[in-house]
Amino acid sequence: MTPECPLPYAEHECLLLGHGAGGRLTAELFDALVLPALGGVPGAALEDAALLPGQDELVLSTDSFVVSPLVFPGGDIGSLAVHGTVNDLAMRGAMPLALSLAVIAEEGLPLAELRSVLVSAGKAARDAEVPVITGDTKVVGRGACDKLFLNTTGIGRRIPGLDPSATRARAGDAVLLSGPIGLHGTAVLSTREGLGFATDLASDSRPLHRLVKALAPCGGDLHVLRDPTRGGVAATLNEIAQASAVTVEIEERSLPVPPAVASACDLLGLDPLIVANEGCLVAFVTAEAAGRALAALRSLPEGAGAVRIGEVTAGPAGRVVLRTLVGARRVVDMPLGEQLPRIC
Amino acid sequence: MKYLDEYRDPALARRLLHELSSVATRPWRIMEVCGGQTHTLVRQGIDELLPAGIRMIHGPGCPVCVTPLETLDRAMAIAARPGVILTSFGDMLRVPGSETDLLSLRARGADVRVVYTPMDAVRIAQAAPDREVVFLAVGFETTAPANAMAVLHAARLGLTNFSLLVSHVLVPPAMTALLDDPDCEVQAFLAAGHVCAVMGWREYEPIAARYRVPVVVTGFEPLDLLEGILMAVRQLENGRYEVENQYARAVRREGNAQAQSAVREAFRVGDRAWRGIGTLPASGLELTPQYAEFDAARRFGVLELTSVEDPACIAGAVLTGAALPTDCPAYGTRCTPRTPLGAPMVSTEGTCAAFHSAGRTRDPHTPADSLSQEPT
């Protein structure tokens, strides 16, 4: 350290909301605190779901849901909790076998609200053809949590021949996106007190495992699968670029940003690339398999809007580059941390 | 989409760039005043596609960036008091004060809330009569009408628990201060479209005439900026120095009379400190005596609070266009969006943050230019 470089002064002594936003602050918290405490390896690639040790065909994933409000256009916390975990399993190439569902609820929550959310979770599970086989219910005093938090844990079985991983992106891979971006985050924000803008935006929350099944014939040509939830496409591509030590180049023109999302982002000063999604996936496939993979995605309603948004190049490791509308290039940075929390 | 896509059309952008190349015969230095314009220029990489010799100088028009450290320290001193709800635009929350920032203060228990309009702060005050609600009123002429309306509305409602911590600044005094500097390199201005939507452009006419400098009122989309630059270069090449309006879809010469009258009722012009630049005479707005009871600095007795800047931060030079963020030794090392030393690294409209998020680097081995060329 030189005299010009004193100790970083912004060492926060307590958690900030941004630590839970899925961006750079979250990564720092993981590497500095969570992983060392739990015996993990800081800096190791983190996947959406883990392979069970000694049982490589099985994957496990867990996710907690704190979205506010509980019901939003296009979904609610119940369906979101099912979709979120089903999708995390699917991103390791697995079909869901079973889910657990845990409830943490605040004293005073109307039973009708709890019922409606759980009925919605049950319906989402049936639609995804996965049973909820165990669960837990805790009630805490007024003010100890905000209405209702849910946790789902899922176990899945991998489709033979598929081994998608954030570490497997290779130069030459095509980068595919299964549908429009920015819908979930902007739909939830549109309901927030103080933001309330009139819109027909609805969350894209839905299960993605059938898309993955449709991609199964790609086999080893399917290198990476990821659903760009918190931190959006920008965070997801940065994580993949880092985990695989490659450069990812995307084309701004080909990004499917629905007009209502573009307008909402313009009003709120947000970049659609960092807005959360709950119903699309990013797939990295070999250039040879790109056409087949796109056709497979488009064969299902949830993938009807699938497009190729870019490719992997042999540039500097961990970099995401956007070719802008006017033809220049800029780096797409890892978002620092979301200013608008509790989106999922 | 109406009013968006047509201003982001790649083919039209290339045509404007081509036209610019054929019009420009000499090097020119043009300042875009507004941080929103800087954001678009850097996000789209427009500044790096301009014909050789045409250089954009990034101006002082980021409201978050020019809000003085004192104001932030005062806001934090107020927010730390029991019973206070401090409301602010989101951008201000991460700006470092002398010791901490509002986000960290909130994590330690202060009631700090993000609002998208000051009218929400008034509503919060109405709903919580036992709390003191303070709105951090920063910004240029663009945000002044809404802040004025909030005060007028609160007065009509008879609210006694609502106040503003005011740090409003005005564009024309900043432009003249820059032009009066003997080292000033700026040869033309892109005036801030949204400021002019409120104020019109009459007040720029004497500046253009006196300093013989073209002023083009310009919007914020990629094509707006390219057209604004082209109009400025045409004037420079022809030796003209007029005020022209590129942003005709939003701006009239007289501006918005109703908004101006709200501002005149609640605020009066006064001297104002600019972060990184210093105090400029008659460069800001303060509450009129009639509405002085809504002044949070008086109400909470924080007027005596003074602050000292981090000596490593060159924000002043960046804000006046005298230096690029990448000229700063702290850029990307001590100073990042994660640990900002100065405000331009915080706001998305801040020049340093815009450079950083676009991956521009000080490292001579990976010059920004290597990212700027479209492959052929």
TrEMBL record, chain A:
State the CDD domains in the record: HypE
Domain of life of the native organism: Bacteria
Chain segments annotated as transmembrane: none
Annotated PurM-like N-terminal domain residues: 47-157
What Gene3D superfamilies does this protein's entry cite?
PurM-like C-terminal domain, PurM-like, N-terminal domain
InterPro entries registered for this protein in UniProt: HypE, PurM-like_C_dom, PurM-like_C_sf, PurM-like_N, PurM-like_N_sf
NCBIfam families membership: hypE
Q: What is this protein called?
A: Hydrogenase expression/formation protein HypE
Family statement:
Belongs to the HypE family.
Q: Which organism is it from?
A: Streptomyces polyasparticus
The PurM-like C-terminal domain is annotated at 170-322
TrEMBL record, chain B:
Record the organism.
Streptomyces polyasparticus
Q: Which domain of life is it from?
A: Bacteria
Family per similarity comment:
Belongs to the HypD family.
Q: Where is this region: Disordered?
A: 357-376
User: Which protein is depicted?
Assistant: Hydrogenase formation protein HypD
Q: Does the keyword Metal-binding apply?
A: yes
Keyword Metal-binding (UniProt): yes
Q: Per its UniProt record, what Pfam families does this chain match? A: HypD
State the organism's lineage: Bacteria, Bacillati, Actinomycetota, Actinomycetes, Kitasatosporales
Kindly state which keywords UniProt assigns to this record, in alphabetical order: Iron, Metal-binding
